[in-house]
Amino acid sequence: MKKRILSLLLALLSLFSLAACGGLLEGEDQADTVSGQLEVHFLDVGQADSALLLCDGESLLIDGGNSEDSSLLYSYLRNRGVKRLDYIIATHPHEDHVGGIAGALSYVREVGTAYSPVAEDENYFFKRMTSKLREFGVGLTVPAVGDSFRLGGAKVTFLGPVELTDDVNQNSLVCRVDYGEVSFLFTGDAEKPAEKMMLDAGENLSATVLKVGHHGSSNSTCYEFLRAVNPLYSVISCERNNDYGHPDDRLLSRLNDAGTNILRTDRNGHIVFTTDGSLLSVETEKEASSAVSAGEAEEGGEPYMYVGNVSSKKYHRPDCSGLPLEKNRVYFYSLEEAIGARFTPCGLCKP
Description:
Layout: E1 3-8, E2 24-25, E3 38-42, E4 50-55, E5 58-64, H1 70-79, E6 84-89, H2 95-98, H3 101-107, E7 110-115, H4 124-135, E8 140-141, E9 148-151, E10 154-160, E11 174-179, E12 182-186, H5 192-200, E13 209-211, H6 223-229, E14 233-236, H7 249-258, E15 261-264, H8 265-268, E16 271-275, E17 279-284, E18 306-309, E19 314-316, E20 329-332, H9 335-340, E21 344-345
Parallel strand pairs: 5-6, 6-7, 7-8, 12-13, 13-14, 14-15, 19-21
Antiparallel strand pairs: 1-17, 2-9, 3-4, 3-16, 4-5, 9-10, 10-11, 11-12, 16-17, 18-19, 18-20
Helix pairs in contact: 1-3, 3-4
């Protein structure tokens, strides 16, 4: 069943002139006048990443999942009538981010500009993507930190990588999308080393919605980075029961401590945010289900009231989206029992 959450954000932004759409901008950081809407679709591509942004008649695809997700990308674009991709961002040359882009390119009739942290790579799926792009007469543009472009009334700004390293994940393109008072931060597979470089460089990382780095790995989204972003929502793209243990319990603990609302493709399916620049709504393909049924007793059939995280020492409601993995759970049958064990309440579900 579809779920809707409506959040009131800050007051309307003071009106300024809107810069012309399209093209790479390297300078002005001016406020936007917005009059339409921005849609951000986080696609359920399993243990992979893909997001489709639609704004004022223009489109941006950020990553495309695995090669096996090509048909999903194809049908998703077809069902929404997206026949032109004005922009493509391939955050880094790993299959789970670029493999399915070929499917998108098999459907659309036109492509504008494609961005990547590197122009060449030996990865087979990256080469297949670049080959498909050449059929449209499009090469890869390698942006610098601070470069930006217009997606309708939205502004997309590249914040990373600050410098290239030997770690492909840390070289992920990181970008913030601003639309009025609402913003989205996309991090690819960037983890703490890349986060620290952006923090040290003084980048403006604040965002309303954070796409959590590297599918919720333990090394992504450190406390300092999370404080700088201060997201209202955090989205994790991962597959149920994946071999990597994503999202990691320590990562979930940090998100819960920050009080951000956690959404996950493994539990929520496709996640779609819509904003007019002031109001933000989110719709999920399906209701989140906890790792165990709410109220199910661990032993003896007695219903428990709260689920504790032995790592973070937080206690949660049984239906909280930030429940820890089974191995880190302890069950409480009363509030007094949880408090007596010196556990503190989760900031997300506020038990």
